[in-house]
Amino acid sequence: PRAGESNVTYSKDEVIGRTPSRNYTAFDVHELFHDIGFDDRDEMITSVVNDTDLMELRHPGVNTYVTFGYGLGTGGSYGWKHDFVPNKNIIPPMPNEMINATETGDTVVPVRSSMRAAFLWEEPLKQLGKKFFYKGYNGQAHAYCVVPEGGSCFFEVLDLICNNITPPQSSVEDAKALFSKLMK
């Protein structure tokens, strides 16, 4: 989860991990990795958290087709029955429970994370004259649009790309309207 204060990020008050003695938010990633004994991964975590491309999520500057799944239970917060015992030689325990399974998404990525680019890229891509297709598919599991078994998503995007079809401009507005509806 990306730490932040917008409707597509996780706030300082939003718990994403809980042990009997500590709550962790997206702002506590360094502490979480320390507490599970992964101090040696601090440079990697810092790199991901501070990566300019991920922080700013700059548009790609090319025709862009984004799909996302919704309507599937996607974890938003996890709990452990025991406090962590830092030990880099063992794998940290899996969560004992999904505290907040009310997030909607594709079982891996919550819709609010999927929608981040819709809010950031629409105008810049429009100004560049680039196509921008953004659409949610009810019941689509994570990354399922890239395989034919993904159903209508795969064939719809393939058709747009192969036949150089300009996606309806309403696709971004429709996705934003869906997002507002799902987040209520």
Main attributes?
two-stranded parallel ribbon; alpha/beta; 184 residues; 20% strand; single chain
Question: What does this molecule look like?
Answer:
The chain is α/β, with parallel strands linked by helices and 184 residues long. It is 33% helix and 20% strand. Strands 2-1-5-6 form a 4-stranded mixed β-sheet, with helices on one face. It has a two-stranded parallel sheet with strand order 3-8. A hairpin with a 2-residue loop joins strand 1 (15-19) and strand 2 (22-25). The protein is elongated and about 55 Å long. It starts with 14 loop residues before the first strand and ends with a helix. The mean pLDDT is 85.
Can you summarize the main beta sheet? 4 strands, mixed
Mean pLDDT, all residues? 85
User: What is the tally of beta strands?
Assistant: 8
Strand order of the largest sheet: 2-1-5-6
**Amino-to-carboxy terminus distance:** 20 Å
The total count of helices amounts to 7
- Which parts are unreliable, with pLDDT below 50 for 5 consecutive residues or more? none
- Which secondary-structure class do the elements indicate? alpha/beta
| H-E string | EEHHHEEEEEHHEHH
Assign a percent range to the helix content: 25-40%
Q: What portion of the residues fall into strands of 2 or more residues?
A: 15-25%
* Gyration radius, in Å: 19 Å
Shape: elongated
